[in-house]
Amino acid sequence: MAVQEARGGMGAGPHDGGCTCGDCPHGARAGHRRAVAEFLLKREEFASGQGLPAAVAHSPSASRQWVSDELTQSAAVVAERGRIEGEAWLGRLWLRTAIVVWAAVITLLLVQALTAIGTGWTVARTVGLLAALLVGAALTGAGYLHRARGGTLAPVIGEDNRLSTSRAIAASWVLFVVFAVLVLVGRLAAASDHREREALIAGLELARGAGIVTVLAVVCGIAVLVRRVVGLRVLGQRLQKVRAHRPRAADLLTDDSGRGSFTDIQYVIICAVALAFAAVRLARRPDQLPDLPWGLALLVLVSAATYVAGKYAEGGRPVILSVVRSREAGDLDAPIRNGDDIEIRGAGFVPPGAQSADRLSRMVVRIGPVHVHVPLVPVAGGFNNPTDAVLTVPVPADVEPGKVEVQVVTAAGVETNRYAIEVSAD
């Protein structure tokens, strides 16, 4: 499909990938898709041995370097188109989030209308609807002010341009507590009886809302703590972070590489269940803060502790375990010399989320004072160099014979340990 799109789109017009107008059919999304299709076509052609110029086809090292340079340039175009598409997508997101907010308000109205059948419309239903309107208006206004950064979702988008699980959970609890307090304020304003007003004020006492207040304090504290922990671990080169092209809903349940994360999933599920319980309690008793049982509150705290522990445990610094001379079939065993390929074995060379070609092309190996860019070696469906555990690079002629140190710099800018090798003079 990608090959057909790349071939069929040739000569499509002046908008090929460059236009970012929202109404143009050849806008940012089409430009990004076309750049991806062209890159995939080029990669598959190189993987099958096609497209090599005759000037480099006779030399394996020269052809490998030429292919790597061509793919690197094409990947850079894909990355730029992806950045433009991501910015345009964020600019359109604020309207979608506003629609979701008001759809939730309408849903609340429908639920109240259906549950009022037989029991009648009450003051609590009116107050709840007014509180929802106020919260929806506030979210819409804040989303409009931050429309270039994702609208209502702007506060829960992390520095790596992904949705933050801890911030999303904290924001959900904050919005719910604000809604609950507004309901009590509305009930208090509408109450005419002195005893009813006293009962509503008593509903705000800590004895009744201790569970939900504790959960709110913990999830907000964890949102701040996780940001600090991740920042310090990145600065200390104990965690590798690469920026995503745009946030996705799946970020709440996955790690940076897109795989499901147990700590994130359990945190989201347990907090969602606790929020649902609190919402039902508020619907049943709109005259007080939802009295979250301590058993359920403790379950949320255990889930939060597991989430934080997972943040401390994830990642790690990349490491070189060994460096050997790469040997082709039929080659004689020999020491490492200038011009030979060396195979660097270790772990953590490809950070989570850095599997795209533009990120892989940023990897560098220091061999003594010389910086060697890791060549991209395409195969059908991907690359066999570099990988997370093995890198293959040539030893340049500028490296002086003798003992030199090898060090890998990943796409996230993190450096591995230094590993000494001996380069033979003959």
From TrEMBL:
Name of the protein described by the UniProt record: Membrane protein
Transmembrane segments: 93-115, 127-147, 168-190, 210-230, 262-280, 292-310
Keywords, ordered alphabetically: Membrane, Transmembrane, Transmembrane helix
InterPro entries in alphabetical order: Ig-like_fold
UniProt superkingdom: Bacteria
